[in-house]
Amino acid sequence: MMVIDMNEVQVRTLEQVRQVLAGTQAMQFQATADDEGRYAWIGSVLKRFDYRRLARSERGPVLAYLQRLSGYSRAQITRLVARWSAGKPLVKHYGAPRQPFARRYTPADVALLAEVDRTMGTLSGPATACVLRRQRDVFGDERYERLGSISVGHLYNLRHSAGYRNQRVLLTKTRPTKSTQIGVRKAPAPEGRPGFIRIDSVHQGDLDGVKGLYHINAVDCVTQWQVVASVQTISEAHLLRTIEAMLAQFPFEILGFHADNGSEYVNHKVARLLDKLRIEFTRSRPRRSNDNGLAETKNGAVVRKEFGYEHIQRHHADRFDTYCREYLNPFLNYHRPCLFATEIPDPKKPGRIKRVYRPCDAMTPLDKLASLPDAASFLRPGITLLELHKLARALTDVQAAEELNEARQELFKHTLTRRAG
Q1: Among 62, 15, 69, 17, which residue's Cα sits nearest to residue 38?
Q2: Beta strand extents in 186-335 (DSSP E only)
Q3: Could you tell me the CA-to-CA distances from 236 to 184, 202, 241, 320 in Å, in that order?
Q4: 184-338+398-420: CATH class
Q5: What is the helix (H) or strand (E) element at residue 28, kind and residue range?
Q6: Tell me, what's the pLDDT at 173?
Q7: Can you point out the beta strands (E) in 174-279?
Q8: Can you tell me the distance from the alpha carbon of 66 to that of 59, in angstroms, rounded to the nearest whole number?
């Protein structure tokens, strides 16, 4: 750092100080490397401007002037000015070196304490201090002369010391354990094959702190074949058998089971069930909302549209589950058309694929299943496309919708009557 011995006695007014700070006043100065010279110059400037009598608004330019030409920081200048204002001489202060505290307990005492803790099983501080005192006073062991008088607080200080840790602490590497992660975090990859379902839960509202029943919604990724069921709770007692019954309602073999990260699905019992059926279990990834988007879309377009948001008591779950199995699910899969995307090159972004939904691509899940190449190879044993089409043609789409509406009205009429009673 450049230290300067100034020849700036011509600067005697505040206006000249401001000109120096603005760079409009020429000045002669001589560089030196003497702290004492700078201190003396600072004192002379403060005396020249009679700093103690300056108004507050006038002190700022003087301080900036001192900082600019001395090379000191603003904090150092402030300290020096405060010392000068108090009438103290501006001289260099060198503090006396601090004397370290005398060590009362030697490394041998620390090693002895570690040995006592190892032998006694590391008792509490007061109990250990009592043992050390008894070793000295009762059993006359001279090695405990100093440790016999140790305070509990300082005993803990010794236990935290590096010498003690070297005696007692043994560092071991973390032992690898077998991973217990349930499911694989990835999106389903059906590759045009049916049998990869996405599943989600829909809660039917609370009333006065009492939870309503739950609907379980499962949708196939490729054909949009949908199975809805109702349960009292999403605990393992009700959910496991419901999931197994839902999987059996799909006409094709189930190859993949995808859920979000809710604990009703991500648990060992569901994982064992899927493993027994040789079904791949996948979970949604963080910040990938589309991983389970198909099921969540059907939650609003089908489940909420069918059952609404009003609270439904849990003891009606069996009745609603029967309605889903006998009326809703056949209607969804045999008579309710779904839109299927067609992938075409994006004209605005070369190399990108764009999904479009054309009116001609609307078809029922059964028709979509039948349109797949070698569709019969995906079906369960004993199920044929001919039988499925026969079931679908037993009623027209409009007749099936009318039958569904009548059954739903009867269902809710009974539900509301039982609730009112």
Answers
A1: 69
A2: 196-203, 206-207, 210-211, 214-220, 226-231, 256-259, 280-283
A3: 21, 16, 9, 19
A4: alpha beta
A5: strand 28-32
A6: 64
A7: 184-185, 196-203, 206-207, 210-211, 214-220, 226-231, 256-259
A8: 11
pLDDT at position 30 is 47
Q: CB atoms < 10 A from the CB of 53, how many?
A: 7
Phi, psi (degrees; rounded to nearest 5) at 111: -65, -35
The pLDDT value given to residue 31: 42
The predicted pLDDT at position 303 comes to: 92
Question: Where are the domains positioned within the chain?
Answer: 3-85, 107-168, 184-338+398-420
All residues at 6 or more sequence positions from 257 whose CB lies less than 8 Å from its CB, including other chains = 197, 199, 274, 279, 280, 281, 282
Residues 348, 137: Cα–Cα separation, whole Å: 93
Structure tokens at 40: 């003396």
Residue 87's pLDDT is what? 86
Long-range own/partner contacts, residues 60-68 (CB < 8 A, 24 or more apart)? 61/14, 61/17, 61/18, 61/21, 62/14, 62/17, 64/21, 65/11, 65/17, 65/20, 65/21, 66/42, 68/20, 68/21
The pLDDT value recorded for residue 205 is 84
Task: Kindly tell me the sign of the dihedral angle through the C-alpha atoms of 184, 189, 193, 199.
Answer: positive
Is the separation of the CB atoms in 188 and 258 below 8 Å?
Answer: yes
Please report, as a single letter, which amino acid is at residue 141. Answer: D
- Residues 217, 226 contacting (CB under 8 angstroms): yes
Instruction: Report if pTM > 0.85.
Output: no
Distance CA 243, CA 309 (A): 23
- Is residue 400 within 8 A of residue 330, CB to CB? The reply is yes
**Type of residue numbered 376:** A
CA dist 363 and 117 (Å) reads: 78
Pick out the chain residues at pLDDT < 50: 1-6, 28-31, 179, 417-421
Residue 71 contacts residue 5 (beta carbons within 8 Å): no
Q: Which of 139, 242, 157, 326 is nearest to 148 (CA)?
A: 139
pLDDT at position 95, please? 58
What's the pLDDT score for residue 267? 84
Which stretch of DSSP H or E encloses residue 322? helix 317-323
